[in-house]
Design goal:
Blueprint lengths: L6 H5 L3 H19 L5 H16 L5 H5 L3 E8 L2 E6 L2 E4 L7 H12 L12 E5 L5 E5 L9 E5 L8 H7 L4 H12 L4 E5 L5 H9 L8 E5 L11 E5 L13 H8 L6 E4 L6 H10 L6 E5 L3 H13 L7 H11 L2 E7 L5 E12 L2 E15 L5 E7 L6 H7 L12 E3 L1
Helix pairs in contact: 2-3, 9-10, 10-12, 11-12
Amino acid sequence: MIGEANLESIIRLEPQERKQTIERLVVQMLEEERVIIPRSEMDQIIQRIINDSVGYGPLESLLKDDDITEIMVNGPTDIFIEKKGKLSKTDTNFKDEEHIRHIIDRIIAPIGRRVDESSPMVDARLPDGSRVNASIPPVSLNGPILSIRKFNKEPFSMEDLIDFGSFTPEMGEFLEALVKAKTNILVSGGTGSGKTTLLNVLSASIPSGERIVTIEDMAELRFKYDNLVRMEARPPNMEGTGEITIRHLVKNALRMRPDRIIVGEVRSSEALDMLQAMNTGHEGSLTTVHANTPKDALGRLEAMVIMSGLPLSVDVIRDYFVGAIEMIVQITRLPDGQRKIVSIAEMAEEDGKIVINEIFRYRKEGVSVHGDSLGQFEATGYIPKALDKIRGFGVDVPSTLFQEGTLL
């Protein structure tokens, strides 16, 4: 029915015109078949046709729910969501596996990607920036699967994360001061911990008058800035050529006169180029790494640098760390779904060894009878060496901010 009416022309219509066109076609078909149905059922039929023909099928209602942050399709009747930090199964269903494939193809078609047996995995994004990953057999044993990480309509601010309880105003004040003072910061955290959200919030504190280059595997950062260049990696084409990696982009960014380079996440040999950039005049650069503790983060970076293929000794690599990374911010997703900064630490070298001096931390205290995670933010009493640098940039941070004790 839609095919006869030229689906392409319907897609280009405004939402209200699109609905009216499809409604007219449905009414016409029902009249031809002499079928009479209640108006309420008619509206449901029309909406389902719109969703399946020009939308994202049964996922439409989930995508419109602003409280949902993740959508996970494990099968036609196994659709899970993360809502307000908690996972739950939905009543939403696809008709069958072919229906899921249809929606996957709908998502990836506008960006010129394809998914088939020769290329069974694909990354994509929706027009609103939401990140999509899809897999099909043979790599997906249970049939086609789909994961969507949604974006908020408006990016979170520093105040939003403080209100959510992710960190305290004192910690926020210190983080903002670090960014203004061009401190190199590594954000570390596990999957779904909020690394990119925190990176976006930190980036929004960069003072005006600088040139910033952002580099991402898939563009997610959304802060506003005048002199901003955004770059995105590109996977190989169907012939296996044309790939542009994060490492290629970091090297290219160094030729673009950046004041700061922000890499969404380092995962491989580009870690070496990022460390070199931080060591060669691009102060205030930011990046993230997938790790569960600050110590693990450095271990992962060390392994990534080794992957670069250059014959560097462990001592040389660690010298890179000391010269490049000044602060490590560890963020964690707790069992109840809360995201917390559990550590802000300064990296230094003492007696030839790397030491991690914790400044602020989150002390876990257990779980309430309702299943909520309990804990307290506290200052350790360590006064960071970066304080002199911060004050040198004209940013006033009182020493009392670091006084040992619980932060309210």
